[in-house]
Amino acid sequence: MFPEYVAMLPRRGLRLDSLVDYVKAGKESYRIVGAFDQFEYRYAAPLYRRLAEQFEYCVHGLNRVKSDLEALRQEQYQFWKKNLLDD
User: Fold this and answer.
1) Please, is 30 exposed, middle or buried when counting C-beta atoms within 10 Å of its C-beta (0-12, 13-18, 19+)?
2) CA Rg, the chain, in Å?
3) Distance CA 69, CA 77 (A)
4) Contact between residue 70 and residue 6 where contact means Cβ atoms under 8 Å apart
5) What does the alpha-carbon distance between residue 30 and residue 48 come to, in Å, rounded to a whole number?
6) CB under 8 Å to 55, separation ≥6 — which residues?
7) Where are the alpha helices (DSSP H) in the chain?
8) How far is CA 22 from CA 6, 7, 60, 65, 76, in A?
9) Which pLDDT tens digit goes with each residue over 13-34?
10) Measured distance CA(61)–CA(3) in Å, rounded
11) Cβ atoms 33, 43 nearer than 8 A
12) What is the end-to-end Cα distance of the chain in Å, rounded?
């Protein structure tokens, strides 16, 4: 979930979401999962450790992808609007 989406949600008093540092929580979550290096998890654990180490880069990359998808969606909307409604 993107933090800017959470920020747009209606507020009813003090919410835990307003107090959470999403980058810190995300890094910590991936670090914890990355520590599960036993049994069937031993192959996935290194991936989660790298995600924890490079979390800010991942967030930046996901935000760029999100921006690109929003731009594509806007372009498609304008295309359909022009071709369907302007006839």
Assistant:
1) buried
2) 19
3) 12
4) no
5) 5
6) 23, 26, 27, 30
7) 3-8, 22-34, 45-53, 55-85
8) 11, 12, 13, 19, 32
9) 656 666 578 889 999 999 999 9
10) 15
11) no
12) 39
Crossing angle for the helix pair 22-34 and 55-85, to the nearest 10 degrees: 120
| 13 DSSP assignment | S
Interval 22-71: pLDDT, tens: 889 999 999 999 999 999 999 999 999 999 999 999 999 999 999 998 88
- DSSP state for residue 27 in the 8-state scheme: H
Domain boundaries, the chain: 19-53, 55-87
Residue type, 25: A
Position of tokens 């071709």? Answer: 83
State yes or no: pLDDT of 8 exceeds 80. no
Distance from C-alpha of 75 to C-alpha of 78, rounded to nearest angstrom:
5
Question: Would you state the structure tokens that stand for residue 11, as one six-digit string?
Answer: 């507020």
